[in-house]
Amino acid sequence: MAGFILAFADKGSDLFSKGFNLSQELSKSFLLQPQLDMHPLLCVQHMLTYIKKAEIQNHFEYYSLCKLLDQQITHLINRDAEHWNDYGCRPTTFIKSPDHPAYKENKEIVDRELDYLLNTRNADGVWDITWKWSSFNKEFAISENWWKANVVIKNTLLLQAFGRFEA
User: Using one digit for the tens of pLDDT, what is the confidence trace for 112-151?
Assistant: First the structure.
């Protein structure tokens, strides 16, 4: 949220100032304790993207933060394809295109995941979702097609970004 504020709030506003101060605190904290789980690390990645978009990198230890982010991404990626159907951190959780700074170091594992995605489509050529809401059968039945569509869109865009889309 702080990064979004930096990118879209008026730079003279109180809101921008709050977003800036929060981003400074989060950056310092990440530099001191970079071992984060998947979701907080995604937040750091988004914040850095928005810092760049706002063109205020010079107010942060931006390049150190980016380097540390890439190291943590490489560390956090689950490299065992047997567990990619489980909840966890696949290579493309963070690396969404060949332009991503962590791609070069993780190219082999990203390419394996892209192959995995292409090979795990069902007979209709799309992906089944890998979870159920066991306590909410009725609600899950209603939302299942939305989730399927979400997975199809995300995977198709991902494969397209890497030049692997097959029509």
Answer: 999 999 999 999 888 888 877 778 888 888 888 888 899 9
Q: Can you give the C-alpha Rg of the chain in angstroms? A: 18
Q: Across the chain, how many H-helices and E-strands are there?
A: 6, 0
Q: Taking a C-beta distance cutoff of 8 angstroms, is the pair 78, 90 a contact?
A: yes
Tokens, residue 107: 């190219």
Q: Can you tell me the distance from the alpha carbon of 147 to that of 140, in angstroms, rounded to the nearest whole number?
A: 9
Distance CA 167, CA 157 (A): 12
- Per the CB < 8 A criterion, the answer to whether 31 and 72 are in contact is no
* Residues whose CB is less than 8 angstroms from the CB of residue 76 and which lie 6 or more positions away in sequence, other chains included: 36, 37, 38, 41, 89, 94
SS3 of residue 129 by DSSP: coil
Q: Give tens-digit pLDDT for 85-121.
A: 888 899 999 999 999 999 999 999 999 999 999 999 9
Residue 167 has what pLDDT?
64
**What is the pTM (predicted TM-score) of this model?**
0.85
DSSP string, 37-99: -HHHHHHHHHHHHHHHHTT-GGGTTHHHHHHHHHHHHHHH----GGGTTSSS--GGGT--STT
Residue 152: strand, helix, or coil: helix
